[in-house]
């Protein structure tokens, strides 16, 4: 049975029966390419989370840290509701992007929160 290198697809002519790569260079390139794809995806998600935080922070600072705002204010800022860092369900559901969070109120309004340690 002929085995081929996972990276360059050349035949593997010698070595262990479960050998996957023809040499160390192909092995390094294969795993580097996997890490590169992973890093791109992590970077994309991180950019979305940071943008969400900036939108929440700007709204929080613009209204003095209190008050309601509309769903449209988040959307206009480029907020992506599919991404957040954590949720606090202890009393009421507050969705956070790092240290800024929001809670849905009635009729399409939201209330902002700033997480403070201690």
Give the helices and strands as they follow along the chain: EEHEHEEEE
Number of strands: 7
Query: What is the rounded Rg?
Result: 24 Å
Low-confidence stretches: none
Q: Could you say how many structural domains there are in total?
A: 1
Derived from helix and strand composition plus strand pairing, the structural class reads: alpha+beta
- Summed over residues and divided by their number, the pLDDT gives a mean of 90
Question: What is the overall number of helices?
Answer: 2
Shape: rod-shaped
How would you name the oligomeric state of the polypeptide chains in this document? single chain
Largest pleated sheet: 5 strands, antiparallel
List keywords for this structure.
single chain, 118 residues, alpha+beta, five-stranded antiparallel sheet, two-stranded antiparallel sheet, 7 strands, 21% strand
Structural overview:
The structure is a single chain. The protein has 118 residues and is α+β, with helices and mostly antiparallel strands. The protein has one domain (22-114). 38% of the residues lie in helices and 21% in strands. The chain has helices at residues 24-62, 71-76, and strands at 3-4, 11-12, 68-70, 86-88, 94-97, 100-104, 109-114. A 5-stranded antiparallel sheet has the order 3-7-6-5-4. Strands 1-2 form a two-stranded antiparallel ribbon. The radius of gyration is 24 Å and the shape is rod-shaped. The N and C termini lie far apart (64 Å). The mean pLDDT is 90.
């Amino acid at each position: 049975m002929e085995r081929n290198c996972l990276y360059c697809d050349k035949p593997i002519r010698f070595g262990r029966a479960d050998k996957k790569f023809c040499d160390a260079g192909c092995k390094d390139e294969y795993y580097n390419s996997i890490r590169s794809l992973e890093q791109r995806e992590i970077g994309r998600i991180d950019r979305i989370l940071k943008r969400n935080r900036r939108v929440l922070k700007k709204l929080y600072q613009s209204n003095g840290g209190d008050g309601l705002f509309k769903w449209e204010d988040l959307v206009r800022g480029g907020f992506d509701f599919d991404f957040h860092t954590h949720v606090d369900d202890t009393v009421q559901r507050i969705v956070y992007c790092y240290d800024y969070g929001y809670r849905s109120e009635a009729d399409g309004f939201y209330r902002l929160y700033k997480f403070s340690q201690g």
